[in-house]
Specification:
Length: 337
C-alpha cells in the first residue's frame, strides 16, 4: 500500500508499506477520503512538539472496514466509518469524567501514532463510527473538523439571545459559525478576519456581520455600534486576541480559546473578574462524533461550504502547500485514495 510519510521535518515521501494487521480491539480501514488540517502542515514543518518521526500523518479520514482484530465482531467488515483520532487510556482522571481528549496518556492518530493518509489504516474499533448513507463518501471525513466546534460550543452553551464574535474565518472559525447558527440558533454572529475571501466564506456559512480587521480594530468597530459580545471564540489563535476579547466582552460573557501558541498573552485579573467573565479552553473532542454525525444527517451543518479542493493523494505535497499558502481561494482540501 501507499502511505504519506513525514520522515523528518521538511521531508515527505509516499512510501510503499506492507498492509497493517489490526491488533486486538482494532479495525483496519480502507481509506477513501482524508482532510488536510493545519496540524498536518505543522508536523510537516516540524512545528508540532507532540509528533514523533517518521510519521504517517492525517487524522481526518473516512473509509470502509475491511478487517478486524481479535475481539471485534467480523460483522463490522464493510461498514462505512469515520475515525475519532483521540485514543485514551480510559482510567485516568480526565477519562473518568468524560474528557478523554486530555487523557494523561493521550495518543492522537496521525500525531503520536500513524494516521489516515494511507491506503489502509488501523484504529481502535470503538473509535470507528458508522456513517449513515445520507452523508456522501466525499464529505464524510468532514465530521472530525466539526467535532472541534462541537467541543468548544459544549463548554460555551450558546443561546439564541447571544451576540457572538468569532475571531478567524479559517476552517475552525467556519465550523464554529455553522454550529452557532445551524445548531444553536444564535441570532447575531459577528466574524473578524483579515482576508476578504475568508469573510465571504463566513457569510456563506451564516455570519450576520463581517469585519475586516486588517486596517481597523474590532474594538473600535464594535464600540461605534455599542455592541458588547456575550460569547467570543478565538479561532485565529494570536496571543494578542485574548486581552482584546476580555476588554470588549459584555459582563458575564463566555470566551472560548482554541489556540496552541507558546507565546504569552498579556491579561489582567481585574479585566476578567470585574465582569465575571468565564474562560474556556478546548482541545480536540470528547466523544462528539455521534453528535456531529447527527447534525450532518439532519442538515443542521453544511460541510460542503468549507471544501474548496479535492485532490488525489499522490499530489499530497502540492495539496499541503496549497492549504498553507493560498488562504484566499483554499479552505479545506480533501485527499482521495
Amino acid at each position: 500500500m501507499n502511505s504519506v510519510v513525514i520522515e523528518q521535518p521538511g521531508k515527505l515521501v509516499i512510501e510503499q508499506r506492507a498492509l497493517p494487521v489490526p491488533a486486538a480491539g482494532e479495525v483496519r480501514v480502507r481509506v477513501s477520503h482524508a482532510g488536510i488540517c493545519g496540524s498536518d502542515v505543522h508536523i510537516y514543518h516540524g512545528h508540532n512538539p507532540f509528533a514523533k518521526y517518521p510519521r504517517v500523518i492525517g487524522h481526518e479520514f473516512f473509509g470502509h472496514i475491511d478487517s478486524t482484530g481479535e475481539g471485534v465482531d467480523t460483522a463490522r467488515i464493510g461498514e462505512r466509518v469515520v475515525i475519532d483520532p483521540v485514543v485514551s487510556c480510559g482510567h485516568c482522571y480526565p477519562c473518568s469524567i468524560g474528557r478523554p481528549n486530555v487523557c494523561a496518556e493521550l495518543q492522537v492518530i496521525g500525531v503520536h501514532r500513524d494516521g489516515g493518509f494511507s491506503d489502509y489504516a488501523c484504529a481502535p474499533a470503538k473509535n470507528a463510527y458508522v456513517v449513515p448513507e445520507v452523508i456522501p463518501d466525499k464529505l464524510a471525513s468532514m465530521v472530525e473538523p466539526f467535532t472541534i466546534a462541537a467541543n468548544i460550543t459544549a463548554f460555551l452553551k450558546p443561546t439564541p439571545q447571544d451576540t457572538a464574535l468569532i475571531y478567524g474565518a479559517g476552517p475552525m472559525g467556519l465550523t464554529v459559525i455553522q454550529v452557532l447558527k445551524g445548531v444553536y440558533g444564535v441570532q447575531k454572529v459577528i466574524v473578524a478576519d483579515r482576508i476578504d475571501e475568508r469573510l465571504q466564506m463566513a457569510q456563506a456559512s451564516g455570519a450576520d456581520w463581517i469585519i475586516n480587521n486588517s486596517d481597523r480594530s474590532v474594538t473600535d468597530v464594535l464600540a461605534a455600534e455599542g455592541i458588547r459580545p456575550t460569547l467570543i471564540v478565538d479561532a485565529a489563535c494570536h496571543p494578542a486576541i485574548l486581552q482584546e476579547a476580555i476588554l470588549l466582552a459584555s459582563p458575564a460573557a463566555r470566551i472560548g480559546m482554541m489556540g496552541f501558541s507558546g507565546e504569552p498573552s498579556q491579561i489582567t485579573q481585574q479585566s476578567i473578574t470585574s465582569k465575571e467573565i468565564s474562560l474556556f479552553s478546548s482541545r480536540l473532542n470528547s466523544h462528539r462524533f455521534p453528535q456531529v454525525i447527527e447534525w450532518m444527517e439532519q442538515g443542521k451543518i453544511a460541510p460542503e461550504k468549507l471544501v474548496t479542493h479535492w485532490m488525489p493523494a499522490s499530489e499530497v505535497e502540492a495539496a499541503l502547500t496549497l492549504f498553507e499558502k493560498d488562504q484566499r481561494s483554499c479552505c479545506k482540501v480533501l485527499l482521495t485514495f
